[in-house]
Amino acid sequence: MYKNKMQKTHVNNLFSLVVLTLLVMLLSLRPVKASTIILDFTSNPSTNIFGVSTNAFDSSPFGFTGLSHNQVIESIFDTVVEDFFGYVYPSLPPGKELDLDFEIGTIGSGPQNGDSDYSYFKIGEDYQNQTGSLGHACLSCALPDYFTYSPGAVVGSIFTDNLLNLAQLALTDDDRINLIAGTTSHEIGHALSLPHPSGAEANPGESSFGLMGTGASPANMPNGERILDRAFSYSNFDRLISAIGLRDISVEVPEPGTVMLMLLSLGLMVSRRKLIK
């Protein structure tokens, strides 16, 4: 009788553990994203909503010394993500983050997270020299409530061959990453409603100029600021919160396969205890 009771207790404990694990996984799932921004470094060629075509991104002319081409792409992506999620702002409540997602992908492939609201930004060479600018994007068109174009449109581009003209300012790989990533975040900022400022703005980054700063009047940002680790100004981030909204920072949970292995191990431990007894 005692043995049967102990076996029943072990089974109940294991069942409770399974239910608790599944509950944690369900509660930790992220909600559907407000919008997903996909950065494309590889499509060759591609054309954005303005009719401007770009080739694939070529990192070799920038003179990176300690990073492979793939590492350069990953570093640019990580820095862009950091611009939107990596700083502390007074208006950002603890445990909250912008309701926005980023991926590296290829135009036409769609987002890996299954989001129905998504836009592309192309990082590459303006091989036909159609603009002469460092990048461009449409204002607010990456916001779901203001989609001017259908989901999946290429709403902005960063022209790395034009950025190459400023590469002599960069002395380190970090400088080179900041030059490209800062311009990328700047153009994404436009697509999320941010305009150019009139000058320097208070921000948590390395420069007195925020990421939306520009060399054009009236901001007149010196080009040397572009290689610094800039951040969105406090006022810009307030506007992003208003335009995008916030979500809870999700708790990372193990992959389903890992969970199953954990449960199997626990089951074996329970069985072993029963055999020992």
From TrEMBL:
<protein>
    <submittedName>
        <fullName>PEP-CTERM sorting domain-containing protein</fullName>
    </submittedName>
</protein>
<feature type="domain" description="Ice-binding protein C-terminal">
    <location>
        <begin position="253"/>
        <end position="274"/>
    </location>
</feature>
<dbReference type="Pfam" id="PF07589">
    <property type="entry name" value="PEP-CTERM"/>
</dbReference>
<dbReference type="InterPro" id="IPR013424">
    <property type="entry name" value="Ice-binding_C"/>
</dbReference>
